[in-house]
Design goal:
four-stranded antiparallel sheet, alpha+beta, elongated
Length: 381
């Protein structure tokens, strides 16, 4: 190998090492404990797990039609007693109203109307003293111990979603809790305008928290893969072309490194990470968005943090000091080298300028030497 080329490779390797150290300094965020608490950071360790492919759909909670009944009178008359109103829970066999007959008598004969099923009184059409007819409903009762969650499934996805398919259901009105459910069946007609089919999931509602009309978000599981590295969706930050996550530094407390990642599939909760992370990396989830805008909240530089962690001095960019740099530092302290007061940015700039200048000179010298050989070779022959 030519001597000039050998020195050129050494210089390039040194430049790459310098760039790596400078990259760590630029991508490391060091916080104090107060900043960590204010950001309310939460971390999760990356692992290889089963990754589920999902189809997203939206829908609503609906009452099961078969679970609704009406209270009506078998005879004409008037209401003389009403024991239930909208919002009341009633039990099967409970007397809800008394109807006075129009037949003569002293007093006129009356009948009691009892609930045919237990449930919630959702509508009333009667008032005390109001006349009633046999064809008129007095009360509507709905048994909501179970309800339908109806998903509007896009037609192109329906081929992969059959009865028995599982889904995770989230109801925003109830917070971030997920409900596991299974597709019971499809509806009887497609929505032509929206291009969707109604997928019906039956949900337990024994606590009575689900109400018709509530918005529902469905993550319908259509497949799965084993041993996939993935992180929670909230951990991913950055522009679509430059995705990053924040990883807890392996040696510095309250320090987080901005790590570029290559992503794959995503579902309702996780994003597949193809490249950029290792199993066991502690990734910031909650607070990662705020962390992407945070600088060093502790006032401690990377150099100072590393000095404290390792017990010896580092360069301003956090790299380990060479023997020559240590000697120069000692000479500077003893007053033999007058570089005190020079801003670290100027020192770094001077180093970069010197490296680039030297590199250009070597390249130019190599080109001139090669050109000279081409000229001399024919003369020698």
């Amino acid at each position: 190998m030519k001597p000039s080329l050998f020195f050129l490779l050494i210089l390039i390797a040194g430049s790459l090492s310098f760039a790596a150290d400078s990259g760590r300094e630029a991508n490391t965020i060091i916080l104090d404990q107060t900043a960590v608490q204010n950001l309310r950071l939460e971390l999760v360790a990356t692992t290889e797990e089963t990754f589920e492919t999902t189809v997203f759909a939206i829908g609503r909670i609906e009452e099961i039609p078969a679970n609704r009944s009406a209270l009506a009178s078998r005879i004409p008359g008037r209401v003389i007693e009403l024991n239930a109103h909208v919002g009341d829970e009633v039990e099967q066999g409970e007397v809800l109203a008394v109807i006075e007959s129009r037949q003569p008598g002293d007093p006129p004969p009356s009948i009691e109307l009892k609930a045919l099923q237990g449930g919630l009184v959702v509508d009333t059409h009667a008032r005390i003293g109001e006349p009633v007819e046999p064809d008129s409903d007095l009360l509507d009762i709905s048994d909501r111990s179970s309800v339908w969650a109806i998903a509007r499934i896009p037609e192109p996805e329906a081929a992969n979603i059959v009865p028995g398919t599982k889904a995770r259901i989230r109801i925003p009105a109830l917070g971030g809790t997920f409900i596991e459910a299974t597709l019971d069946r499809y509806g009887v007609e497609a929505n032509r305008e929206a291009g969707t089919l109604e997928g019906i999931f039956v949900l337990d509602n024994s606590e009575g928290r689900l109400q018709p009309g509530m918005r529902v978000e469905f993550s319908i599981i259509t497949g799965s893969r084993e041993n996939v590295m993935a992180v929670p969706r909230e951990a991913i930050q950055g522009a679509p072309t430059k995705r990053v996550v924040f990883v807890e530094d392996f040696e510095l407390p309250n320090a987080f490194v901005r790590a570029p990642v290559v992503l794959g599939e995503e579902n309702d909760r996780y994003v597949e990470v193809i490249n950029g992370l290792f199993p066991g990396d502690e990734v910031v989830t909650r607070g990662s968005y705020a962390l992407s805008f945070a600088g060093s909240g502790s006032g401690i530089s990377l150099k100072e943090a590393l000095d404290a962690a390792h017990g010896h001095e580092h360069n301003d960019d956090g790299s380990e000091m060479t023997d020559e740099q240590k000697a120069a530092k000692e000479a500077e302290k003893s007053g033999n080298v007058k570089t005190a007061g020079v801003h670290p940015a100027l020192k770094s700039g001077a180093l970069i300028w010197a490296a680039v200048t030297t590199l250009l000179c070597l390249i130019l010298g190599q080109m001139l030497w090669s050109a000279k050989r081409k000229v001399e070779t024919p003369a020698e022959s």
